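Limitations
The structure tokens in this dataset are predictions for the assembled complex, not deposited experimental models. Users should treat interface geometry with appropriate caution, especially where small molecules or nucleic acid strands are included. An illustrative entry is reproduced here so readers can see what is and is not provided.
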Amino acid sequence: MSDNHHTPASEETGDTGFFEKPGMRKILWVALLASCAIFAALGIYGMVAGWMHPYFTLDGLPVFYALAGAIVAAVLGAGGRLLSEALTKPSDYYDSPADETRPDDGEGRP
Amino acid sequence: MMAHLILRVTIKLLFAPIIVFALYVQFHGEYGPGGGFQAGVIFAAAFVLHALGFGLDETKKVLPPKVLPWLMVTGVMLYAGTGVATMLLGENFLDYDILQPDSHHHAGQHIGIILVELGVGVAVASTMLTIFYYFAGREPEIRDEDW
Amino acid sequence: MAIPGLEQLPVLPVVIPLVAAPLTLLMKPGRAPWAWATLVSWVTFVVTLLLLEAVWVHGPVEYAMGGWGAPEGMSAPIGITYYVDLANALVLTLVAGIASVVFPYAYYSVESEIDHRQTPAFYTALLICFTGLLGVTITGDAFNVFVFLEISSLSTYALIAMGARNDRRALTASFNYLVMGTIGATFYVIGIGLLYQATGTLNMLDLHQQLMGQSNRMVEAGFAFIITGIGLKLAMVPLHLWLPNAYCYAPSAISAFLAATATKVQVYIILRFMFSVFGFEFAFLEVALNAFIVLGIVGMFYASFVAVFRDNVKQMLAYSSIAQIGYMLLGISFGTVDGVAASLIHVFNHALIKAALFMGVGCVVLRLGSSNFAAFNGLAKRMPWTAWGLIISGLSLVGVPLTVGFISKWKLMEAAFQTQTFIPPLLIVLLIGASSLLAAIYIGRLAYAMLLQPVPEDAEPVKEAPHLMRITMWIMVLANIWFFFQTDVTVGVATRAAQALLDTGLGYGGAY
Amino acid sequence: MSDLLAGLIQNPGMLLIVAGVIVALLPGRQLRAIAALAAIIGCYALLASYGTAPMDAPVLMGESTLFGLDLVSIRIDRLSVVFATLFFIAAGLNAIYGWLHASRMEASMGLIYAGAAIGGVLAGDLLTLFIFWELAALSSVFIVWGGGTHAAFKAGMRYLVIQVGSGMALMAGVALTVAATGETAFTAMSLTAEDGSLNIAALLIFIGFGVKAGFPLLHFWLPDAYPRASAVGAVMLSAFTTKMAIYALARGFPGEDILMLIGAVMAVAFIFFGAAASDLRRVLAYSLNSQLGFMVCGIGIGSELAINGAVAHAFASVIYKGMLFMAMGAVLTRAGTLRAAHLSGLYRAMPLTALVAFIGALTITGVPLFAGFVTKSMTISAAGYYEHMLVWLALIAATVGAVNNIGVRIFHDTFMGARSDAAKVSGDAPLPMLIAMALAAAICLVVGIQPTLLWSMLPFDYDYAAYTMDHLITQMQLILFAVLLFALARRFGLAARPRDGVLLDVDWLYRVPGRIALAGVVRGTAAAWHRLWWGIQAGVARLVKGLYDTHGPEGALARSWPVGFMALFTAVVLGLMLIVTFVAY
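Predicted assembly:
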């Protein structure tokens, strides 16, 4: 069971791409956190200053969207995982693995 | 050969009367019990009898199988031809009256029925004989190439 | 009838092949009998077209054989009469039309499947069978129906048995059919006998007059015998057992011809007896109609399910025919003009569909010697014309728009919505839809095999079927599309024919 | 022939179908691709020559009759034209994408499929709609089968059944409508009749549409079939069937309240399935289904803004979803697998494809400057304006779902991170695929930056400002915090990829218990029948044997058994018939 959970990292030395460099990762993290903060601040400011127009009372709450995003993401992450645990069956559950092989169709598929 | 002598003589004696009787039934059928179908069967029966007594090969010499399809066709054509003739003369299919239009005694009907019955007789007789020839001449095993 | 020169028209469709058949027997084996039979079928087709036109324009036509029509002061004829209204004119045209395409098609297929020496006999039997089918349809005399029924059946047994050169099982199939067919015909003749006992007449129109208001046990028994007898010949569902093998092992051309015509003619007979002879005054009709609903629906599903799992395409198509007969019975069972019209339309359309399909399979049998599914693998690459013809006519069978199958299905659904039966119309419509899905499955299976399965590696290269077979098959395929756009013939004629059939007062005494 | 054919042939979709048949006959992939592109451009020119017309005054063309029913081959109004234009763009992109890789079947059926979809949206009456509806179903089956595996065959069969079933529901509904009213016109209808009772005809049509639109519980064919198709085929499939259904719903059931509920359930439920699926194209398929929920909601709200939003979102969705399927197709072509567990770090070998996937992710999540932002906010705004709070919440949730399914699963997990073995591929996507993806990306950007281009085509004139500070801030908050949460989860090892394998869906019901039940019924019936039949046979055999032991050889009898029983059966039927006759009176 747990072998299905492995992260597909055959991490080899010297195969570190542009985005895997520690410096780059740090920059990305900073950028993400900064933009989160900026938009949260803008949202709060807009709500307080009154130029934001909520549809309902619910989204009149400052940073409502930020909260919604985070909460739904958490629920989705957990839910998706639960669903995967509950409903995933081995690949040959319906079809035998032989069903997945492709007979040559004569057209010379690449 | 001698064993069947009585049988054969009898058959020879009976053969002609059977044919005559067939013809009688044939031509009587126009206005009395009888007709082409019965006559054809009786006619064929004479030949069947002949084959029983003298062997199939002898009968085939008398009435070669090659002739039979022609007879069958002739019979049917005689029947259908009468019908077509009445049509060509301007009446309905098999409306014999037109064959002798001036008659007040339905002579046309007589002519027509005689022709039709003759056709039936010939066709039935030849068909019966064909069936008989096939059955009697059937080889015990059917070869593959016959299929 | 007032068209000069055409008085003889009603009898010609029977006389022409009848006269031509014996002549065929005398011909030299090979091309001559085939050419002759083809010519005859064409001439007959032209005659039936003229007849259809005459009936369309002038109304029902009667023809007294031998001039033995109704004497002065009597309504009923004393001899055999031929009676042609739109219903049988349509079926006549259909039978002759199918023949005029299948007969030319037959040449190569017959050369390969039947002993060369037997070809004259084959075409003779074919023409006799053709005569019989036309005669059954055209005649207005109940006993004459029996005669022609036997004419067509006996020759059919012989024709099916001729498939024995390819597969000896044809002999058993033919024998089974012989026994069953004879029982059916016997039942029919018993039924006729009972009706004759009750009424003293054999003329269909006169029978109707005499039966009006009569509803005694004898007539009811006669009705039951007739419906069972014809139901057997029709391959109505519990009585269908003879059909799959008969169609499967017959020579290809015969499968195509019979599938497109024989059962269709029986449907016509059922219609004629139920509505023209017995009519709605006959109380027992309702019971039979209700039985037909059940039998029709059971047939639609049972046979389709079986078809899905067949490994032989010919058998699959044969079972599909049984299922399609279910549709026709369903249409009849509504007992309305629309329902009967839908049934007649499906008779016509299904003939086109099945002819095309069996002809396509015949092409495959000719080239690959088998009608098993395995032979169809990769067919689109090996015999593209045949494969695509099969696919288009298969789509028509499913009832896809732009093909005639759609017209049938649509009309049937429309008719279903306008009826009151003990099954709610909506359910019937959904059942029709559901059984179309089954058709989609078995045709899909065929399409998949032909289009997407690889050609077997050890397969020898094959040529396309001969031009003659391909062209004739494609005529049928194109007819499947043509009659979608040209619905005047089918829908127009069938609707009026159904009106005439149901409005029994109207059909009687049209033109003595 | 008749005016029916003349009418049909004026329909650009029909011409494209004809072109598809011709393409099937051409040799060589290149030639077929060129011919396909030429046909698409030519047919589009024909459509363009018809111009457009406002919603309340459609231009009708190609009128004809089929057995007494009035058919209208073409209805030009802004709703039909925008969908037809969209399908032409999609068909063109598909033709380019499959330039080198489309098999003969895919090239030809793809054109027929596109033609059927175009014909369907242009159809002026229900019967013509049904004609194209069915053609779309049948042609697309071949595209599913084009996957070439036996699993694809089986999936194609299931797809065929459900698609034809949808057609049959539609046909039954249309037949009922015609039977009741004699009218075939395709106009807005309602599920409830005037007296409040259920309108069966409309319900049947609604179900027919719903199957193709992927309504929950009727959706299972979609994630079943799409991942089975080939790389090229899946792109084709993603564009037409479902959007055609969206068009049909927008035309037939605008403002039908139940659609809001259905759409909300779709939008939310399928993001979970998407999160749990392991095959990447299956993830896309679920995500597509969730996006359909957006459109269904919009149609359910039914205001001019909402319909506009639904249509605009359908437009954007075809482009970006097609683009994502293209990217995944490129990965499949190169890496040979789309199992999520086996792929990561692909960006090194396929940087351009990675970029496309990134743009796709930006578009679908609704980042400003990309098409998704403007089209999504229309529907969300409409839900907000008309106080449909549940719908509104569902749409917000669906946006977060897109962040996870596309942004994280499709883009990040597949292309970023450490390189897996399967990701060591020879190179980026082939050139035609890249061109198609680039064009799609360009459309996403153009629509995102200059939304008025799209809005001028929408059914209603509605002045909507997408780029307001409100929208920007709320949307960015939503996306950024969702991303933040996913990133944190990754960082702290809380998130795991879904297990590798098959994700069960509603189709399990008929593929496992359904099959067992069916097999059981069949076996049971067979056994019962067998017992009955052989019981009778044995009984009769004993009887007959007893009789014939004294009378003759039984060998001959044994041979004729089957016939004997058929005959017996006939007698039984006759007997029943007679009994019924006598009992009945």
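Some entries come with short summary sentences. For this one: Chain C is about 75% helix and 0% strand.
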